[in-house]
Amino acid sequence: MKAAGLIAEFNPFHAGHARLIAQMRASGADCVVAVMSGNFVQRGEPAMFSDRRRAETALRCGVDLVLQLPVPYALAGAQRFARASVTMLASLGCAESLWFGSECGDLALLQRAAEITAQAAMQPALRAGLDRGLSFAAAREAAVRSIDPAAADVLQSPNNNLAVEYLHALAETGGTMTPHTVRRTGAAHDAPVPAEGEASASAIRALLAAGQDWQSYLPAEAAAVLSAAIAAGEAPVLPGAFDGIALAALRLAPDLAAQAPDRSEGVEHRLAAGAQSATSIDALLTAAKTKRYPLARLRRLLWTSLIGVTEADAACPVQYLRPLGFTPAGAALLAEVRGKTALALLAKPADLPDLTPQAQRQFDLECRAGDLYALGQPVPGPAGAQKQMTPLVMK
User: Fold this and answer.
1) Domain coverage including residue 289
2) How confident is the model at residue 323 (pLDDT cuts 50, 70, 90)?
3) Based on the domain organization, do 231 and 100 belong to the same domain?
4) Which of 108, 148, 247, 327 is in Cβ range 3.0-4.6 Å of 64 for a Cys bridge?
5) Is the pLDDT confidence value at 266 over 90?
6) Is the pTM of this model over 0.85?
7) Which among 187, 222, 237 is the end of a domain?
8) Is position 85 within any domain?
């Protein structure tokens, strides 16, 4: 079976995702595999729709197998996010290609940026930027600019940056997947309004939160699934729904973030201090923000702290493959790799007793994330849903 992989959040699934999948099919892929973040996403927020609903949109719109990216990597910086996702796809042993969107659409230029950022000679300039108080992304861009301005320009765009990390991960994991990039069209990432008839995921979320038309920017099948989630009181899940939970946790346990990954220079104390006077998550993060700690990094720190992700959890490799849903082609691929992949296959609740302690810890964190997420739904849900969830089966 010729499988092709992509890494996404589908928050929500939109026209750009559909176009990427169409190109994967056109390349000859028999099975499209997506590694998808669970209930919390890399920008440091709860997903607007649950992992199950987003998996269903993907399956109805061309994906054959959706694998859940565990929360320690979903709520991580681009490097750890990319490495874990690529590792999962590579572990299948049959994924021949990795596809991703980028603002530049130029694979050669992205590979040049990846080569430069991997050079040891760049490290002194990177360290100098960090010592000046720059964020990692800004310091890296400045270091690359001293070597190749065109490659540095690439690093100014978020999807280009993530693409560079995918290329690093392919090189570091020894994977044999061939990279392919597709140029993003329409609205730019985080653009406030649609462009060329398309809207970015962030623009669609903003439209939805404002009660404006969002369905027309999604494939009809995806819009139907997500509209049903809203009607059922499951969505949209917005960060503000957790204001009281987050502030109460930090006020009652000021050391809550002391073991969270990606913290340094006492930033956890800034969060604890800010919680004493802040009355919302937005106010808390704004007060804690510095040049070194941009909002996305602080948001990830907050949510990993609330869920209980530690430095040790972040350093632990991926332990299992958890399918959230599949088509017949996806089921055939799972049957093909069962017993051959080095990762455990967690396909149903009956598989839980067979997990190693490390894998059990990783799944326990997913359950904690799911239980927290359920409290932010318009109609709050009970705990325990992750332990009971079985894969969606599409005929």
Assistant:
1) 240-313
2) very high
3) yes
4) 327
5) no
6) yes
7) 237
8) yes
- Answer yes or no: do 114 and 195 share one domain: yes
Q: What pLDDT shows up at residue 237?
A: 98
In the listed set 237, 266, 285, which residue is the last one of a domain according to the structure?
237
Encode pLDDT of 184-234 as tens digits: 875 555 555 565 668 999 999 999 999 999 999 999 999 999 999 999 999
Cα 184 from Cα 256, distance rounded (Å) = 39
> 3-class secondary structure for the chain?
CCEEEEEECCCCCCHHHHHHHHHHHHCCCCEEEEEEECCEECCCEECCCCHHHHHHHHHHCCCCEEEEECHHHHCCCHHHHHHHHHHHHHHCCCEEEEEEEECCCCHHHHHHHHHHHCCHHHHHHHHHHHHCCCCHHHHHHHHHHCCCHHHHHHCCCHHHHHHHHHHHHHHHHCCCCEEEEEECCCCCCCCCCCECCECCHHHHHHHHHCCCCCHHHCCHHHHHHHHHHHHCCCCCCCHHHHHHHHHHHHHHCCCCCCCCCCCCCCHHHHHHHHHCCCCCHHHHHHHHCCCCCCHHHHHHHHHHHHHCCCHHHHHCCCCEECEEEECHHHHHHHHHHCCCCCCEECCCHHHHHHCCHHHHHHHHHHHHHHHHHHHCCCCCCCCCHHHHCCCEECC
The answer to whether residue 393 sits within a structural domain is no
Integer Cα distance of 31 and 89 in angstroms: 12
Q: What is the pLDDT of residues 273-292, one digit of tens each?
A: 999 999 999 999 999 988 77
Mark whether 161 and 302 lie in a shared domain. no
> Residue 312's pLDDT band (boundaries 50, 70, 90)?
very high
Same-domain check for residues 304 and 155 = no
